[in-house]
Design a protein that fits this description.
Strand content: under 5%
Number of helices: 8
Helix content: over 70%
Oligomer: single chain
Amino acid sequence: MRKPYFLNLILAITSGGLLVLAFPKFSQGWLAWVAVFPLILVCFYASPKRAFLYGFLSGTIFFGGLLYWLLSLEPWAGLSLSILAWVALTLVEALTFGFFAAGASLISKNYSTWGRLILIPAWWVSLEFLRSIGPWSFSWGVLGISQTSSPMVLKLAKIFGVFGLSYLI
């Protein structure tokens, strides 16, 4: 049974919005523990191609909200350049959410429950890691960073590192 497109849009937007609230400025880190679930739910029902689009939408909401500070460069760079930088970086980073969703869609259709529980978080962390290395690296928005306001969870970061936290979330 396919879910209606409108519901999938709402779920993708919800994931992106909840992730924005989990990161600094709002610092509601507990939301990270549920924020990706609506997007994953969409991936279970959507084709990989459609899942990519929903993931891209979710990533655009998330990075658009997370990178709001680029607009504050307006006094130095001018309004046009700061908006261009904000839009460009948001869209480039949102691609990783699209790739995640497409991969999660494939994983959900080809693996058992245990395989999904292991592989979907591993796919997420792999994309976060790839996004954070190389000459074009940009590690803002790593899911584990959302836990900076939770001393109990930060103790786990000493053991697993920030990507380990992302995997657990």
